[in-house]
Amino acid sequence: MRRAHPAAGLRRRARPRRRLPPLDRSPHRNPGKLRNPIVISLHEGRTSESLNGEWQYALDAADDGLAKGWSAATFDAADWRTLALPTNWYKTEIGDFFGTVWFRRTFTVPASFDGQRVFVRFGAVDYYADVWVNGHFLGSHEGMFNPFEFDVTDLVDREGENVVVLRDGAPRDETEYIQAVFSDNPLSDDYQRHQAKAISQIKGHMIDAMHRPGSMTKFRQDGTSGGPWGRVDLIARPHVYVDYVKLFTRIGIKKDWLGDQLDKPDGTALVSADVTIVNTTGRTVTTDATLTATPKTFEGSSAVSAPRRLTLQPGSNTVKLVVTISDAHLWWTWDHGSPDLYTATVAVGDDALDVTFGVKEVRQDEPTGHWYLNGKRVFLRGMRYITSQWLSEGTEQLWDDDLHKMLDMQINSIRIGSHVEPDRFYAKCDELGFLVWQVFPLHYCVSDSDDFVERAADMIRDMGQMLVNHASLGMWSVFKEPEIYLLPDKPNNYFRLCQILKETLATVDPTQWIHLGDYREGAQNLMIGGVQPGDIHLDEKVIEPQIVEFGAASIPVLETLKTFIPEDKLWPPHWDTWEYHGLFYDLAFDFAKIELGDSLEEFIDNYQSYEALVVKEQIEFFRQRKYEPVASMYLYYWSDSCPIIGSGLLDYYRRPYKVYDWMKAVYTRVLVSLERDVTPYVIGREKVYRPGTSFVAKLWVTNDLEHDLQDAAVSWAIRSSGGEVVASNALTGTIAADSVKRADHVVWAIPADAPLGEYRVELSARDAEGTLLSDNFLDFVVR
Q1: 239-357 in CATH: which number?
Q2: For the residues 156-174, what does the mean pLDDT come to?
Q3: Angle of helix 659-666 versus helix 600-623 axis, rounded to 10
Q4: What's the pTM value of the predicted model, to 2 decimals?
Q5: Which parts of the sequence belong to the Glycosyl hydrolases family 2 sugar binding domain (predicted)?
Q6: So what's the pLDDT on residue 36?
Q7: Domain 364-666 CATH assignment equals 3.40.1080.10
Q8: Which among 252, 473, 480, 686 counts the fewest CB atoms within 10 Å?
Q9: Domain 670-782: which topology?
Q10: pLDDT band at 35 (very low <50, low <70, confident <90, very high)
Q11: Looking at residue 15, what is its pLDDT?
């Protein structure tokens, strides 16, 4: 008899196990003229009409809706229910349904569209989409993040009512899940660690990752992200229109012929635009085109190119436009300058389109892995981020809250790992000055078939075109973890898929660094006590420049835990249920060595306390090695993507873990920290000394500021639990800009008769005016 699924917190429904056919274009699916979707077209600022709101919908579990005539404009859908779009249907009454859902609504074409062409645009549909307007099949699309649209000018009734129908297929991927780890733990077989053999859908975190519904169990695809989660719009464009603009900027360099003969910035910037223009008139059109760069976030004059005379053939035309900004303001991360932005206006004939951009250059020094922004070396204090497992939950307010908390934590870089956020999120990063490292939506265990390579290459081209103009976009990865497989027969993704994806993305963005995938090319995961043993000897570990993941897991507060663990499975823990919801038994008790304790509250406190300590000490360790070799570091994650036992600073409901305040205290731009003189060097554990021995540690000062700190004061004091200072020192000097320095040796010869108990080393750094720059501590025990 099949055992009942213990994870009552997720809504599980019966669903077909077979995969939805990949958008068959056979004649029975194509009652009208097939129109290939226009995938990445700029639409911001166009005359538009929202089609968001109430749509009728019906589940198609048997996948026979087409045969029943559901695509027809005359079909009577009176018995269909209604649902507000955009949404991920998991968040609605539909729940965790895998399969096909049909959506339809009527619309009229606004009078403001008169004399213009009409397009229907879908911002994002997860995962397979077919679209009809007035019964005419427009075409199909695959993907979960990339927008697409169709020209419906000749199909719509401008005087009457029209019908748009969307067939959205989000099936469970047919990959086989195989138990990959055989551990001596209390988990049932289905809840041991399983691994997909070869996923065929390109959904990254949304289909297969650690901290998502089903976690690493046999059920790890649960929590579907299916649905039309991006907005739906009618878009108007003229008959000759600017379809797409790809911008590149270069900081002006000129050789000093009359001086020292060196190449130097000359204060200018060169802006070049690849402009795609569509001529739908059916005849050759001659017109002028100009490119204007206007300051958007600061006062200044515009730069306007000379008109370029164009002869546009029917169809798509691509031309180059160039303009020089004489007194260029550069885009910087918030901590190195101002994130100044411009508006590029591309005018072609009677049409004009605006695109926001920034003048910047990001370069990685290949031998060292160090990052240079506009020629200046910068250290990246980073954070991995995902809005939610269900991206329709992203709002302006949510992003504002998250990003301003990150500013308060002095984070300057964000890594978007194996998904693509909505466009407004990147726009906010542009405005606030966060440098973004974007990872294509591939996480684990995908197929390396020729078909998969082709489909993924098309999507990564879309991703590049969607994001390349954002000032915040600084670097790319084509795959999260292409070689993380626990099965013996591994797909050859690193040397097949990743290479093609890099080549394809480079055709869109040939200027910025493209990473083939973790963990090569100087990238490293060091989640000590998380996915690596907590007792790892760091003194024996080779450290790489890019720490793309560090951190640890933990258990959220009891209020949050009760939202997804049923009451009868909370205590004592029902381990299958807890594993399904992200505990990872082996990692918690073998790697982190968490004490269970005598109550649920004690267990939560034990895990949160360990996470806080080990994350703090990871940060200190990496920043003590700034540029030797560490160039960037990204905590895994900002917030949990769903209600789960996760690894965020905040849980899904944005309630903080204990680690939040601990990390905030050591992610400051100036940090004073200790490195104990012990072998082996283990972090995150209780530090025990015996009477008659010595406490010895190096005192490091890390300065991420771009200016020297003259007459800075650094002090330390070892204080007993009773408040007695048993050793101390204070020193004053200059802390160099953008540096790390061993400033002192902390030594206390512990007397043989020293009181037993807890001691704390208190550390501080202040500037010449006495302003506190860093306030830190290290606890140890004498016994």
Answers
A1: 2.60.40.10
A2: 97
A3: 10
A4: 0.94
A5: 49-165
A6: 67
A7: no
A8: 686
A9: Immunoglobulin-like (2.60.40)
A10: low
A11: 34
